[in-house]
């Protein structure tokens, strides 16, 4: 089976790109066999999102981090599969919570079957990931448990919202770090640990990957406002229509300047379809966008600082190229 496409980074080393492609092919094979069941329906439901595609971004980060140790170490591919299974499981659950009808261009599991099937399928993927983890050692199991705790905590905090006395922006960033950054951080940590990299390399990659994850999500916030649907394939203003308070929106709502009064009014709740063009126009011209982009750049700069202390090998150049990409894609 052909490997899924490697994330489009300006890799400076062709050998590295080939190694990653080969590793992703192994990940894909084990990923599919790991969810097979004697029950045909369980297999079908479990493979639903696997077969819908995806870049296998987190698995790629595991393989890339393993370049700082022994990339062919026995636990690297299983570790990448655990990360991908965990990510896929959260997607099944997210689609139920968001009542999403589509995932990766195909009907979501909850739309194709129902919420109960989607939730149980996500649980099954978590269980299959745990079975693989059992062979990777107590330290890896502990890290996975801590990561899962952060994923759930982030979802809970997002669901209930900030406390009355809590800073809205700080709450939002903390949620992003838990919901998105934590699993991406563990991707780098698994790859480094399972390949036998040094403790310093493990620490640097863990911190850098978390910062990259937060920066990536902040980039999505900006793209929802600034993107051209013809170029990005995304419909601008989706978050605004759903009343999701992303970072630029939070900055506007925390402003008390008179010129932002109309925009604050529009962003107070889900933006009506008749008002979406006006909301996008005003938000695109608002300083909140540059302020949000500066926050993204600050997170990426944190990642670069840690990456700069890694051994100078092609994998470091690839990680730094990823940092550039996270900033550039945000516009």
TrEMBL record:
Q: Name one GO molecular function term.
A: heptaprenyl diphosphate synthase activity
Q: Which UniProt keywords apply?
A: Magnesium, Metal-binding, Transferase
Q: What Pfam families does UniProt report for this protein, alphabetically? A: polyprenyl_synt
Q: Where is the signal peptide?
A: none
Q: Which InterPro entries match?
A: Isoprenoid_synthase_dom_sf (IPR008949), Polyprenyl_synt (IPR000092)
Q: Which GO terms describe its biological process?
A: isoprenoid biosynthetic process
Question: Needs which cofactor?
Answer: Mg(2+)
Which parts of the chain span the membrane according to its record? none
Report the EC number(s), separated by commas if there are several. Answer: 2.5.1.30
Q: From what superkingdom does this record's organism come?
A: Bacteria
Q: Please tell me which top-level EC class this enzyme sits in.
A: transferase
Q: Which Gene3D superfamilies match?
A: Farnesyl Diphosphate Synthase
Q: What family is reported?
A: Belongs to the FPP/GGPP synthase family.
According to UniProt, the name of this protein is: Heptaprenyl diphosphate synthase
Q: What is the lineage of its organism?
A: Bacteria, Bacillati, Actinomycetota, Actinomycetes, Streptosporangiales
């Amino acid at each position: 089976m052909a490997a899924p496409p490697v994330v489009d980074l300006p890799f400076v080393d062709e050998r590295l790109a080939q190694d990653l492609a080969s590793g992703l092919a192994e990940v894909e094979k084990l990923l599919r066999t790991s969810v097979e069941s004697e029950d045909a329906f369980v297999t079908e439901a479990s493979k639903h999102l696997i077969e819908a595609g995806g870049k296998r971004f987190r698995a790629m980060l595991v393989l890339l981090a393993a370049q700082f140790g022994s990339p062919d170490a026995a636990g690297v591919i299983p570790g990448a599969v655990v990360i991908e299974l965990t990510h896929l499981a959260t997607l099944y659950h997210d689609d139920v919570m968001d009542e999403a009808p589509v995932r990766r261009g195909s009907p979501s599991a909850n739309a194709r079957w129902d919420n109960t099937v989607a939730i149980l399928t996500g649980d099954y993927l978590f269980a299959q990931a745990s079975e693989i983890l059992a062979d990777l050692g107590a330290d890896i199991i502990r890290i996975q448990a801590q990561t899962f705790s952060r994923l759930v905590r982030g979802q809970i905090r997002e669901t209930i919202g900030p406390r009355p006395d809590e800073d809205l922006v700080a709450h939002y960033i903390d949620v992003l770090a838990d919901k998105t950054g934590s699993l991406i951080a563990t991707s780098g940590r698994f790859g480094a640990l399972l390949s036998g990299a040094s403790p310093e390399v493990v620490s640097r990659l863990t911190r850098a990957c978390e910062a990259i994850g937060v920066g990536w999500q902040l980039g999505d916030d900006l793209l929802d406002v600034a993107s051209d649907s013809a170029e990005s394939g995304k419909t601008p203003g989706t978050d605004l229509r759903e009343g999701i308070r992303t970072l630029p929106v939070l900055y506007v709502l925390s402003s008390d300047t008179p010129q932002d009064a109309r925009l604050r009014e529009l962003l107070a709740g889900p933006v009506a379809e008749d008002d979406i063009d006006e909301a996008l126009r005003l938000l695109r011209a608002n300083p909140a966008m540059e302020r949000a982009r500066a926050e993204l750049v600050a997170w990426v700069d944190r990642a670069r600082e840690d990456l700069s202390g890694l051994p100078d090998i092609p994998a470091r150049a690839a990680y730094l190229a990823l940092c550039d990409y996270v900033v550039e894609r945000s516009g």
